[in-house]
Specification:
Shape: globular
Largest sheet: 10 strands, mixed
Structural class: alpha/beta
CATH topology of the largest domain: Glucose Oxidase, domain 1
CATH class of the largest domain: Alpha Beta
CATH superfamily of the largest domain: Putative cyclase
Helix content: 10-25%
Number of strands: 28
Length: about 550
């Protein structure tokens, strides 16, 4: 497929993820993905899915804790591991081929220390629920993994179901295998040797890379062939799930053909900036990386009336030699993005947004508001730095400091309403994030007298006592900010937090990529801000 091009700056985006959702090919031995619509437009006026899934599906990153007891979870890995320069190397392999150090040494472009390395064996073209894709794939040898670890690469991705050769996994004669019983006799018939003789160790490539702190990405796909033999700039941030064994990601390559695009320096405007590098994660290139996400996992606050989050352990180290967890719940919790179809019938899903909506220059603006405060067009007009066309806009009301299972955060928060949303559309912004429970003011949601609400009936009495007016008098529209912005193509992110105070008052470069989920009405995600004070970073040109 041709690259997706940002019309504002010419940056090219290449999709390197397989689709996630129903009928995603599942590694043999694991449960299928389950999707259930729990709210419907016809009845509730919104559409939401309950999801049951492991995170080792589609294009995903593995954390060290997946195989190494006590090691880092996916949300504890330094963010700079998931963004930077790297290579797509073509190492074509046939059935049961083994990637050796000589393949890596001779690969073009040359693999360098600090590179993100994506290996194209050609196997992504076979991606399906098939024995060929899972059982006959090539894989890294132990020696190849040792070579990559010694080279001190930043991250390793493969276009196969596993970093290791399939006969070195539970698909073959290891641990709880063989999950595909016919592989072992087939291998002996083809080679005259027992699989255990040629692949005596279980997951050695996984273990070596993860023990070295190098995350691994499996099932790389999409437009990978278009980037063979090129140096690129990549991003693939996982959720802020500190104890997570893995996470589905949106893996994207970016090329700047003109070589003129720069990351923002972070210089404050007119003395309003509160920026500080004290919370940033220093990257090798001198970048400052800020996490604007709340932690995801057990104990996270739930939207009132929504089902609780459940995470259960399916496999654990003492018994199975690895950690695998399963998630059950909705996506509309923690730091997450909404799709238009969530609030409006017959509108696009997550994949209806072009990739360029999720990355770009923008501002983090301070608009402090107290209980039930309304963000107005005048607030947005006066904000510093000035909000410009094509900006990513992060709004800091101060409410992220209240984030928790409490009414102050959910029921009494400030928010956007109709007029502010119209102003943002007219200004032509690229994306909007806010540090409150929803894109809309809480009294414009079904917490108040809208849709299937009121979910919090006492609020109308409290509002009348405080103002002498009923909620419906001042908030007559149901979720207008959601509908106005998203039906005009502007993604909205709720529950911004983390280091937002550290970058408020500055122009930054932002990342916020959701899963490639064609049915998706929302997605938890990692929101990241990057500053380049020395202006030394360069996007790869693809040449």
């Amino acid at each position: 497929m041709p690259a997706v091009v940002d019309p504002a700056n010419g940056l090219e985006y290449y999709e390197l993820s397989h689709r996630w959702g129903m009928y995603t090919p599942i590694f043999p031995g694991y449960e299928e993905i389950k999707l259930e619509r729990i709210t419907h437009h016809a009845k509730q006026g919104v559409m939401t899915h309950k999801i049951t899934t492991i995170f080792h599906t589609s294009t995903h990153v593995n954390a060290p804790i997946h195989l190494v007891p006590g090691a880092a979870g996916v949300g504890e890995i330094a963010l700079e591991r998931f963004f930077g320069t790297g290579v797509v190397v073509s190492i074509p392999k046939r059935k049961w081929g083994v990637i050796e150090p000589s393949d890596l040494e001779g690969a073009k472009p040359q693999i360098k220390a600090g590179d993100i390395v994506l290996i194209d064996t050609g196997w992504h073209r076979k991606y399906s629920d098939s024995k060929e894709y899972f059982g006959y794939a090539p894989g890294l040898s132990k020696r190849a993994a040792e070579w990559l670890a010694k080279k001190r690469v930043k991250l390793v991705g493969v276009d196969t179901a596993t970093v290791d050769h399939p006969l070195a996994t539970s698909l073959g004669p290891h641990r709880n295998g063989p999950q595909i019983k016919y592989l072992i006799p087939e291998y002996k018939a083809a080679t005259g040797r027992e699989a255990i003789e040629d692949f005596p160790e279980w997951n050695p490539a996984h273990r070596i890379l993860l023990e070295a702190g190098i995350p691994t990405i499996e099932n790389v796909g999409g437009d990978l062939d278009d980037l063979e033999g090129k140096r690129c700039t990549f991003q693939g941030f996982p959720w802020k799930w500190r104890e997570g064994d893995a996470c589905v990601i949106r893996l994207v390559a970016m090329l700047d053909r003109g070589g003129k695009l720069r990351l923002e320096s972070g210089a404050a405007r007119k003395g309003v900036g509160r920026g500080s590098s004290s919370k940033s994660s220093p990257a090798a290139a001198g970048l400052q990386v800020f996490d604007l996400s709340h932690a995801w996992g057990h104990g996270m606050p739930q939207w009132p009336s929504r089902a609780n989050l459940n995470v259960r352990t399916l496999e654990f180290h003492a018994k199975d030699g690895l950690l695998v967890q399963q998630f059950e719940g909705i996506m509309h919790r923690g730091t997450h993005m909404d799709a238009p179809i969530h609030v409006a019938e017959n509108q696009p899903t997550l994949t209806g947004y072009p990739l360029w909506r999720f990355f770009g220059t923008g501002v983090a603006v301070s608009i402090p508001k107290g209980k039930w405060g309304v963000i107005t067009p005048k607030d947005l007009e006066r904000a510093e730095p000035k909000i410009q066309k094509n900006d990513v806009v992060m709004i800091n009301t101060g409410s992220h400091k209240l984030y928790g299972d409490n009414p102050d955060y959910f029921a009494y928060s400030p928010g956007l309403y109709k007029q502010a949303a119209e102003w943002l559309v007219e200004r032509g912004v690229k994306l909007v994030g806010i540090d409150v429970q929803a894109l809309d003011h809480p009294l414009g949601t079904f917490l108040g007298p809208h849709g299937p609400g009121p979910a919090q009936p006492h609020l109308d009495g409290e509002y009348f006592a405080a103002t002498g007016r009923h909620i419906i008098d001042d908030f007559p529209h149901w979720e207008p900010a959601h509908k106005i912005m998203m039906t005009n193509g502007i993604p909205g992110i709720e529950n911004i937090g983390g280091d937002i105070d550290a970058i408020t008052g500055q122009r930054c470069t932002f990342f916020a990529f959701p899963w490639r989920w064609p049915e998706g009405e929302g997605c938890a995600l990692r929101v990241v801000a990057v500053l380049d004070p020395k202006q030394s970073f360069r996007f790869e040109t693809g040449r």
